[in-house]
Amino acid sequence: MTNKYIYFIANWKMYGDLKSVNTLDKVIKFSKSNKNNKFKLIYCPPYTLLSSFSSKLKKTNIEVGAQNCHEHETYGPFTGSVNSKMLRDVGANFIIIGHSENRDQGETNLLINKKIKDALKNKLKIIFCIGETLYERKNKKTHKILANQILLGLKNIKKISNVFIAYEPVWSIGTGLVPDSSDLLNNINFIKSFIRSRFKYKSPKVLYGGSVNPKNINDLKDINDIDGFLIGGASQDSKKFIDIVKKTFI
Ligand code: PEP
User: Fold this and answer.
1) Is 72 one of the catalytic residues?
2) Which atom of ligand 1 is nearest to the CA of 13?
3) Structural contact between residues 100 and 132, judged by C-beta atoms closer than 8 angstroms
4) Which of 44, 90, 102, 230 is positioned for an S-S bond with 209, CB 3.0–4.6 A?
């Protein structure tokens, strides 16, 4: 991989309890002992663990992110919800927005756009997930879908340097399937050139997410235009997570 700086983002989804904080020890040790500073690790645990992860990772160069937020900017009567200001307050620097598991629960492009605007105001860096379903892919709609999700999700956002796009084909998440290299390269390049032309931003960061594991990273790492990986299942196992990072740089 020839890219300068690669991001590895661990999405723990709805997994983990207080004891899981100890699994970070291995990763902290690995990151401290590794003199190659060509990568950045970011952990996105569930809300309940944000505070513990932030304390544990305080004196390391590993950062913490949240997995979603409510779109309302200030405190309000929204039972069970948290907004980006509250996430910032417990140590999050990043936030995943637009994950297909949330789109699936009814999260619209309009809501996603509100969440991104508010999170940016609160100085969170955004991991903005986009991706096509298998049906859309089969019907050759992938680029149309990606363009639409980008235009609506980033509507009226002028400064997108703190927005990382995570290209996550829906059919690839948690299934063990990954796009073949030429397809993936084509879609990553499409996203980059679309962002460059519509937002006049020269260096968009585009990550890939979907069933990344220590085996398939050997192929994925050779796709030079990928700026990093959003990793679900495999990131909950520290050994696998470290292996993915190591193999990327072999
Ligand atoms: C994800 O949840 O963003 C993800 C990519 O999951 P997995 O790696 O398990 O497919």
Assistant:
1) no
2) 2
3) no
4) 230
| pTM of the full structure | 0.97
Spell out the residues 6+ positions from residue 68 whose beta carbon is closer than 8 angstroms to its own. Answer: 95, 96, 97, 99, 102, 115
Task: Clarify whether 107 is annotated catalytic.
Answer: no
The pLDDT tens digits for 136-190 are: 999 999 999 999 999 999 999 999 999 999 999 999 999 999 999 999 999 999 9
- For atom 7 of ligand 1, the residue with the nearest CA is 232
Tokens of 224: 């030079």
Ligand 1 site residues, Cβ closer than 6 angstroms? 11, 13, 168, 173-174, 209-212, 230-234
- Alpha-carbon dihedral angle through residues 160, 161, 167, 168, given to the nearest 10 degrees: -90
Best residue among 230, 235, 236, 240 to mutate for probing ligand 1, ranked by most atoms within 8 Å of CB: 230
63, 71, 99, 136: the catalytic one is 99
CA of 65 to the centre of ligand 1 (A): 15
Residue 156: left (phi > 0), alpha (psi -120 to 50), or beta?
left
pLDDT tens per residue, range 129-148: 999 999 999 999 999 999 99
Nearest to 55 by CA among 41, 67, 43: 43
